[in-house]
Design goal:
- The complex is a heterodimer of chains A (551) and B (316).
- In chain A, 7% of the residues lie in helices and 44% in strands.
- Chain A has 5 helices and 36 strands.
- The longest helix of chain A has 14 residues, at 2-15.
- Chain B has helices at 10-23, 30-37, 47-51, 299-308, and strands at 43-44, 59-61, 69-70, 82-84, 92-93, 105-107, 128-130, 138-139, 151-153, 161-162, 174-176, 197-199, 220-222, 243-245, 266-268, 289-291, 313-315.
- Chain B is built from 4 helices and 17 strands.
- In chain B, 41% of the residues are buried.
- In chain B, strand 16, helix 4 (299-308) and strand 17 (313-315) form a beta-alpha-beta unit.
- Residues 1-38 of chain B have low confidence and may be disordered.
- Classes of the chains: A mainly beta (551), B alpha/beta (316).
- At the A-B interface, strand 1, strand 5, helix 4 and helix 5 of A face loops of B.
- Chain A: This is DUF839 domain-containing protein.
């Protein structure tokens, strides 16, 4: 998908007369050394503390804000049905290239799967996003869609959703297996494309059936790259016969010239018959290299292709020379990276499971993890294996996996899903629109630097990396409320009942850096069952719900 | 919050439409009326919530919710037509599942199921069942009672044997038995007459019954990654066969009848011990893809194969 943005990025550079040195474009040397690039850019932040998953989403709130856009089982379609679980890939398609008004498609990795489309715009007076409509794509003419994982955006403004399963069945008897394909959707009409003009939608049969992870479409409007998670474990290229029509073309799989070679060859994969197309992963396995669960593949700002192998945790890159590839290298590999956050330095294991990749306008690579601590990492463009430049942008809510990051064309806004967070998460976090957000199911959010999101450009500012937990919860007589302060700060810790009445003040005044425990006992005469514990620090608050068990 | 919530009960909409119908003297937008009729079935995600609305629960999705058992209380949802219980830790299915007589589609993939209660096989409306990625050790005889089952996913289990009652599964079109421990298939599989797609990849098959190739609707047969040393001569009877996957076996020779598969489009013979293919290969008029890598085929034989199949992509 990022070739789309890359085009804009290159255009912007040319217009500005910028030097085409990646580092110069991305950030000044001084800032690069400090790990902080240009201050109005989305990739400009100081890492969050590597804490592993907590009960909420933590981003660098000193510089960035987020806003909830959609939540599964709560966001409602016009027909009254609820958005399903498994929010995954997001695709922002601006109206006429706008970064302020357009469509956001959201994949659902579920069985059956699905794709939602939000019509949304930026309310510039309020400085937050407004969802004007919620729609769902109708897959019934093609039996169904399943496990919609990642996907891509075409240069002509359509969205492609990738079905990550090869479950067998041809229930409509059309000779094509029902699932395991790329599917192109017009986000304006919400309809699946019909290429042969027979009035019935088609999947992108010629790209082959496999456990599709994602798709990256080139600005040449003909070349696409895709990778298979499982099956053949292959990296594929498809070159369409006609520009802007991806329904027919030649398919290739990457074969590394030897196990350790830096060169490789694109081997053609037959894809003319239904038998070929239904069995692409079988043919690709025979013809190509097994990369061990490749996931996202994306266009890099340096003209190279970048892809991740989930099984090993590596991010690879190579140069595509047409019939062959060169300069194959593992660019980011598993090790402990030193993360410098506000308040200290800590090592964090990169682990495995790197899944989604997205480049921003400065050439930072955002890597979303399904495994390890399910982090959102950012790799600076001047990273080398010898001199790592790895940052931590987000720690995620318990049980969830960060998925499907895309940026608005101006790179001010990032859209991301937090798939299937644990229903036990109870922490309430205020978003940039002032709404209380609990990450207890799949959600899709938008984030940006504070000046671009939140009231008067003053989004949440407090050091919400302060942590608030309560145990036991539910409790019988009393609950221990734990506060973990990242720095010394004035704080107020209060308990309210659900009528909004304050029932206790547990702390008021300076709390030193570190952990503090307070006991809350509502007394035997209290009638309330649910309480809200609120921690106010530096003008912002986080809260958690606790429940008194009935005897 | 900017999320649009339109949680209007369907019944309320219907009442509103009824009022409108009266007020407008019967002139009403037919499109809207149709839209209401096609209101989709609500999917319930929480069992407790579903139990409070038993009469309205047709679809239940408890994917990835840490269930260790498909419990009797779930089986009180007797209107259920669709259940997705994949990615739990379900080891047992309560016998009460037999109460769910309207079930049409179930997905128990990625659980810990070792066997199925006899009552499961009384679910006469069942059309699709997915038990892939479980711990099943047999293809139970009870499956023979599921006369409407069209699709059965059993890949990634520990199945050692397929019961001969498979012969009674007259609706079965798709059967996936890949990644199991099968050493043989019963002759009776040849009576499961609706089979279009049979996958038995990644097992320990040493031979397959000749009856398999009497399946006149069979379009796809996947037998790759087994221990096959030979194929029955009846092979040529599978006239509908379009895809035949035989890669990664121990095959040395192929029956001459192979060339009778006039609808064959894709043939995978890679990684066997084949040195010669049958004569008259040109009879395979529709063959477009032939995978032969990893076989001891001489240059002369390669030359012959290429000449006989000028329109076929061949990987040697």
């Amino acid at each position: 998908m990022n070739k789309f943005y890359e085009g804009l990025f290159v255009t912007a550079m040319v217009t500005a007369g910028a030097i085409c040195s990646q580092q110069a474009v991305a950030q000044t040397k001084k800032n690069a050394e400090a790990g902080v690039p240009a201050k109005n850019k989305i990739g400009s932040f100081i890492s969050v503390q590597p804490t592993g998953q907590t009960s909420t989403t933590v981003i660098p709130f000193e510089t960035h804000s987020f806003q909830l856009l959609a939540k599964s089982r709560l966001t409602t379609y016009p027909d009254g049905s609820l958005m399903p679980i498994g929010n995954d890939f997001t695709a922002f398609v601006g109206k006429n290239g706008s970064s302020k008004e357009g469509y956001l498609s959201i994949n659902h990795e579920n069985t059956p799967g699905g794709v939602s489309i939000l019509d949304l715009h930026l309310d510039e007076a309020q400085n937050n996003w407004v969802v004007d409509a919620v729609r769902k794509v109708d897959f019934s003419p093609l039996v169904q869609t399943t496990r919609n994982c990642s996907g891509g955006i075409t240069p002509w403004g359509t969205v492609i959703t990738s079905e990550e399963t090869t479950t067998r069945a041809d229930l409509n008897g059309d000779g094509y297996e029902d699932v395991g394909w790329q599917v192109e959707i017009d986000p304006v009409s919400g309809k699946i494309m019909d290429y042969d003009g027979d009035g019935k939608p088609d999947k992108l049969w010629a790209m082959g059936r496999m456990s599709h992870e994602n798709i990256a479409i080139s600005q040449d409007r003909r070349t696409i790259y895709q990778a298979e998670d499982g099956g053949s474990n292959g990296v594929y290229k498809f070159v369409a016969d006609e520009e802007g029509n991806l329904s027919e073309g030649k398919l290739y799989v990457l074969k590394r010239d030897s196990e350790t070679a830096t060169t490789g060859t694109w081997v053609q994969v037959p894809n003319t018959t239904k038998a070929d197309r239904n069995n692409t992963y079988v043919i690709g396995r025979s013809l190509g290299t097994n990369w061990r669960n490749p996931e996202d593949i994306e266009f890099g700002p340096d003209g190279k292709m970048y892809f991740t192998t989930k099984g090993t945790g590596d991010i690879w890159r190579f140069k595509d020379n047409g019939a062959t590839v060169s300069e194959i290298e593992a660019w980011v590999t598993r090790q402990e990276y030193e993360i410098t956050y506000n308040g200290g330095t800590q090592k964090e294991d990169w682990n495995t499971g790197i899944d989604n990749l997205t480049f921003d306008g400065e050439g930072n690579l955002w890597a979303l993890q399904d495994g390890g601590n399910d982090n959102v990492w950012v790799i600076r463009p001047d990273h080398t294996p010898e001199n790592p430049k790895v940052e931590l942008f987000m720690t995620t809510p318990a049980g969830s996996e960060p998925t499907g990051l895309t940026f608005s064309p101006d790179f001010k806004y990032g859209f991301i899903s937090l798939q299937n967070a644990s229903s036990a998460n109870a922490t309430v976090t205020l978003d940039a629109a002032g709404n209380e957000v609990v990450f207890n199911t799949a959600t899709t959010i938008v984030f940006a630097r504070n000046q671009f999101l939140g009231k008067n450009g003053k989004g949440p500012k407090s050091q919400v990396s302060a942590n608030l937990t309560a145990y036991p919860n539910p409790f019988v007589n009393n609950s221990q409320v734990k506060v973990n302060m990242p720095t010394d700060a004035d704080a107020v810790l209060e308990v309210y009942n659900m009528k909004g009445l304050k029932v206790a003040t547990l702390a008021q005044g300076l709390l030193k850096k570190g952990e503090h425990t307070f006991s809350f006992n509502p007394g035997t005469t209290a009638n309330d069952i649910i309480y809200l514990v609120r921690l106010k620090v530096a003008g912002q608050e986080i809260s958690t719900r606790i429940i008194r068990a009935e005897n | 919050m900017q999320i649009i919530i339109r949680k209007i009960p369907v019944s309320l909409i219907q009442k509103l439409v009824a009022c409108l119908f009266i007020l407008t003297g019967g002139i009403i937008n037919l499109v809207n009326a149709q839209a209401i009729e096609s209101t989709p079935t609500k999917t319930f995600y929480q069992v407790q919530e579903a139990l409070a609305h038993k009469e309205e629960v047709y679809h239940l999705n408890i994917r990835q919710q840490q269930y260790y058992s498909f419990t009797p209380d779930i089986c009180q949802l007797t209107k259920l037509e669709f259940v997705n219980a994949m990615k739990n830790k379900i080891a047992d299915i309560a016998p009460e599942i037999g109460k769910l007589q309207y079930l049409r589609e179930i997905n128990f993939s990625e659980n810990e199921i070792r066997d199925l209660p006899p009552s499961f096989f009384t679910l006469q409306q069942l059309e699709q069942a997915d038990f892939s990625h479980n711990q099943l050790t047999e293809f139970a005889r009870g499956f023979g009672q599921l006369s409407r089952l069209r699709v059965l996913q059993l890949h990634y289990n520990k199945i050692r044997a397929v019961a001969p009652q498979i012969a009674q599964m007259h609706a079965l079109e798709t059967l996936n038995l890949s990644y199991n421990h099968l050493e043989m298939l019963p002759t009776e599989i040849g009576h499961s007459a609706a089979l279009k797609d049979l996958a038995v990849s990644q097992n320990q098959l040493r031979q397959v019954p000749g009856s398999l190739f009497k399946l006149s609707h069979l379009k796809t047969l996947a037998l790759d990654f087994n221990q096959l040393t030979a194929l029955p001569r009846q092979l040529g009877q599978a006239k509908s066969l379009q895809t035949l996957l035989l890669g990664n076996n121990q095959l040395k020779v192929l029956p001459a009848e192979l060339t009778k598969l006039e609808n064959l489009e894709l043939l995978d013979l890679s990684h066997n011990q084949i040195s010669n293919l049958p004569i008259k290969l040109k009879k395979l008029k529709r063959l477009r893809t032939l995978l032969l890598a990893g076989n001891p085929i001489s240059a002369t034989e390669k030359d012959r194969i290429q000449k006989e199949l000028p329109h076929t992509f061949i990987q040697f």
